[in-house]
Specification:
The protein is an alpha/beta fold. The protein is built from 12 helices and 12 strands. Helix 1 packs antiparallel against helix 8, helix 3 runs parallel beside helix 4 and helix 8 crosses helix 12.
Length: about 375
């Protein structure tokens, strides 16, 4: 199989697995056990990983909290923020192109009294900054805009969004799940106050993630949404997944060192894929061509049914959108918000390139499509 669905999940880097293996067997201690060396070794490993992740996003290690993944991080962040501040501010502004993990939490917050408003996006999926300026006011608690879209790769102007948010005293929450490892992310330069991260998007293990919560300028307070222990400074209780955390830290260190060289490789392979498809089939690209992730392309095959193409090419892993919604058999909410017709939406396939893909694989993908389409 040629795997081109890396925005769904990446494979575990063998170097990451190597770092994890001792914590399955030799160093199996509970990081909360303070009375013996097994616990001390585990606790030290967790703190090393915390620093590695902090280095990746340029924050203090005390601002990193471990979770089971981005979805839990999003729930802790948005529900915790609303619980803490709902009496003073209750408006949250987001965009219709956000991941369902964000949109579904916002729907839940509506039932608790939150006022949720959506900013307009253009045909490339970029938010309308003038629309955002009109929506923000002194009742705005947070602006929630993702760094990079998981379906199209479209990037947002985080610095300006942050500035608009902070001008009215609102927090800026940015889902960076797809951005980490594919581009440089600096929470201070970008003005991000709260940010979820998931290890399996950058060659780490599944089932482990983190949440960045700013400690100063401004300090963010989150009430916990679950209880049962004092782990992670009482924000996320439960025995820590030490093995997964070690893997996430190792993956973060590799990503910090390799993101630039990887991005060059991704861009070259994606350009070859897009230009080949454009020449052979006259396809259209959904989303911004100028402002997007280096590894992602969302291609409309002009009236052909994407699901039928995928079935005809079982040895190529690709998708019609987010893995979290692929089982629902519904039109992409991202492409729909961008104004694409139903015909265009159901003709579109996302290809997301990873660091283990090769030029030979991309050439084979083009050949395979030619066999099916000609």
């Amino acid at each position: 199989m040629i795997y081109l669905d890396n925005n769904s999940t990446t494979s575990l880097d063998p170097l990451v697995l190597e770092k994890m293996l001792p914590f399955f067997t030799i160093h199996f201690g509970n990081a909360s056990s303070k009375t013996h060396s097994a616990g001390w070794i585990a606790a030290e490993a967790v703190e090393i990983a915390r620093q590695q992740i902090a280095n990746l996003v340029a924050c203090e290690k005390e601002e990193i909290f471990f979770t089971s993944g981005a979805t839990e991080s999003i729930n802790i962040a948005l529900q915790g923020l609303f619980k803490t501040n709902s009496e003073s501010r209750n408006k949250i502004i987001s965009a219709p192109t956000e991941h369902k993990a964000v949109l579904d939490v916002l729907e839940h917050l509506k039932t608790l009294g939150a006022l949720i408003e959506m900013v307009k996006v253009d045909g490339e999926g970029e938010i309308d900054l003038d629309s955002l300026k009109k929506l923000v006011d002194q009742n705005t608690l947070a602006v929630c805009i993702m760094a990079a879209n998981n379906e199209t790769g479209t990037l947002q102007n985080l610095n300006l969004i942050s500035e608009i948010s902070h001008n009215v005293g609102a927090y800026f929450f940015s889902d960076a799940t797809q951005a980490i490892g594919k581009m440089r992310v600096d929470v201070n330069e970008m003005g991000i106050d709260i940010m979820p991260i998931s290890a399996h998007k950058f060659y780490g293990p599944k089932g482990v993630g983190a949440l960045f919560v700013r400690r100063k300028n401004p300090r963010v307070y989150l009430e916990p949404i679950s209880f049962g222990g004092g782990q992670e400074n009482n924000l996320r209780p439960g025995t820590l997944n030490v093995t997964g955390i070690v893997g996430m830290g190792a993956a973060a260190e590799i990503a910090e060192n390799d993101w630039w060289s990887n991005s060059i490789k991704f861009s070259k392979l994606r350009t070859f894929l897009e230009q080949s498809f454009e020449f052979e089939f006259g396809v259209k690209i959904n989303g911004s061509i100028k402002n997007r992730l280096c590894n992602t392309t969302n291609i409309c095959f002009n009236g052909l049914k994407a699901d039928e193409l995928i079935i005809k090419l079982p040895l190529i892993a690709m998708s019609t959108g987010s893995a979290c919604t692929s089982a629902l058999f519904q039109a992409s909410h991202v492409l729909k918000a961008m104004g694409k017709s139903e015909k265009e939406i159901f003709s579109s396939i996302r290809f997301s390139i990873g660091k283990f893909n090769t030029q030979e694989e991309i050439e084979e993908v083009v050949k395979s499509f030619k066999k099916v389409l000609k």
